[in-house]
């Protein structure tokens, strides 16, 4: 087998040093030939000695003639000297070059980042000066003309209004859920939302208004974690009309008095247009009654 190894043209070219590759590196085909030669040599040894694992004691058996052992040893030396060692050396050289290129690339990146940071700092400095100038001018006008608007009481009122608006954006109101003595509103709301495939964390459930005799049912107000959950629930609320036990139940945002009045006007206008033009499709969109076009 070793004779075949030495007679293979490509390995002979490698040994002669004339065909290692255009860039003096072992290419993939070279590696395959070296691997096949090494595997063939190991297979011959194991076959002759009748084992799958070679040890010094096994190789020391006198069952192989000196000439065959010399041929195997020569083949192994050729593989190591002309193939494995040059391959490791060239691999090391390439790794070193790649490391140097990586370091240089990192230096270029850091240099570009520093240039970008310097440019951004310069732009921010200019913006800061402009803002500072405008703020001084604005502050002067406020001090002269709007001193009362900046009083602690007015500021506190404004902050409180914003806080209420933020809380309201996380609240919903349910109409039409039957009122029962000793009821658990949290469970009722959670069960209702499960029909919409929504399972938010529900808090602050309460009936709105005074308890009244008769069939009048007070609406339920409750809160969820954020306005996105409110949007998802409102988007699916129309599905309740197809759920048994909830056909007369509907959900709306927790509107202010002004918003409720405006909404009532829109609903009245919507009903009027639908009555006057029953063949068209009217709906409320962004505070207006609009006609759907096809």
Notable features of this structure?
294 residues; alpha+beta; 9 helices
Bin the strand percentage.
5-15%
Number of discrete helical segments:
9
Termini separation comes to: 83 Å
User: Looking at the chains present, what oligomeric state does this protein adopt?
Assistant: single chain
Helix coverage percent of residues? 55-70%
Number of strands: 6
Low-confidence stretches: 1-10, 18-24
The general outline is elongated
Query: What would you report as the Rg, rounded to the nearest angstrom?
Result: 43 Å
Query: Average pLDDT across residues?
Result: 77
Provide an overview of this structure:
With 294 residues, this protein is an alpha+beta fold. It has nine helices and six strands; from the N terminus they run ααααααβαββαβαββ. The strands form two sheets. The protein has a four-stranded antiparallel β-sheet with strand order 2-3-1-4. A two-stranded antiparallel ribbon has the order 5-6. α3 crosses α5. The longest helix has 80 residues. The N terminus is likely disordered.
Secondary-structure blueprint of this entry?
Blueprint: H1 2-7, H2 9-16, H3 28-49, H4 56-59, H5 66-145, H6 152-168, E1 171-175, H7 185-194, E2 203-207, E3 220-223, H8 227-236, E4 250-253, H9 257-276, E5 282-285, E6 288-291
Antiparallel strand pairs: 1-3, 1-4, 2-3, 5-6
Helix pairs in contact: 3-5
Task: Provide a short characterization of the protein structure.
The chain is an alpha+beta fold and 294 residues long. The chain is 60% helix and 9% strand.
């Amino acid at each position: 087998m070793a004779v075949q190894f030495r007679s293979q043209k490509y390995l002979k070219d490698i040994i002669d040093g004339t065909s290692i590759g255009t860039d003096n590196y072992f290419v993939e085909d070279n590696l395959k030939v070296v691997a096949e030669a090494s595997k063939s040599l190991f297979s011959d040894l194991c076959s002759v000695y009748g084992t799958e694992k070679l040890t010094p004691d096994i190789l020391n058996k006198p069952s192989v003639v000196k000439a065959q052992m010399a041929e195997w040893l020569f083949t192994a030396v050729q593989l190591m000297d002309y193939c494995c060692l040059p391959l490791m050396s060239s691999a090391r050289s390439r790794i070193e070059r790649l490391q140097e290129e990586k370091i240089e690339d990192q230096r270029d990146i850091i240099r570009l980042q520093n240039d970008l940071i310097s440019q951004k700092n310069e732009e921010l400095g200019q913006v800061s000066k402009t803002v500072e100038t405008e703020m001084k001018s604005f502050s002067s006008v406020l001090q002269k003309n709007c001193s009362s608007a900046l009083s602690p009481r007015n500021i506190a009122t404004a902050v409180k209004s914003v806080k209420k608006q933020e809380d309201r954006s996380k609240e919903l109101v349910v109409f039409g859920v039957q009122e029962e003595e000793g009821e658990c509103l949290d469970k009722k709301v959670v069960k209702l939302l499960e029909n919409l495939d929504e399972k938010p964390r529900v808090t602050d459930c309460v009936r709105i208004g005074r308890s009244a005799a008769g069939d009048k049912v007070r609406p339920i107000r409750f809160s969820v974690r954020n306005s996105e959950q409110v949007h998802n629930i409102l988007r699916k609320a129309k599905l309740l009309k197809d759920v048994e036990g909830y056909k007369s139940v509907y959900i709306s945002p927790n509107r202010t008095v002004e918003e409720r009045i405006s909404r009532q006007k829109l609903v009245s206008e919507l009903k009027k247009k639908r009555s006057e033009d029953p063949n068209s499709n009217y709906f409320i969109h962004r505070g207006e009654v609009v006609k759907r076009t096809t």
